Amino acid sequence: MIRTDRIFGVVVILVALAFIASAYNLPAGNMFDKLGPKVFPIIVGIGMAASAAAMIVRPDAEPDWPAMKSLAALVFATVVMIAYAYMLRPFGFLVPTAIVAAILSYQIDPKPARAALIGVGLSAGLYVVFKYALGLGLVALPRALMG
To answer: Number of folded domains in the chain?
Structure first.
């Protein structure tokens, strides 16, 4: 029985309907833009729903799922990224990014010294790009340390 694509298709249709419904909460356009900002999300939602319906009607063969060890690694990486989102505000950008990049790097290639160097290097490099090249208002370190 081919269930995976059909279950995923139903989930995507529900997300697409929520996406379309949320688009109706956007403000109306002005006199220069008659369509307003609602149209693009609605078109994307319709495309999502149509693609999902195609998955339900014509599913592929049942896939070979990865081993439990791989799924556990994916869950762990997801938990680390969620924790990262919560660590950014109180601890600044550099420290949480270095820690998370090191953890994820270690998960890819379990060499502690290399993972630590990659974490620190990626943190510093991304900070420079985001802060100075893209002009984002990042806080480097915790505000308590910055004064």
So the answer is: 2
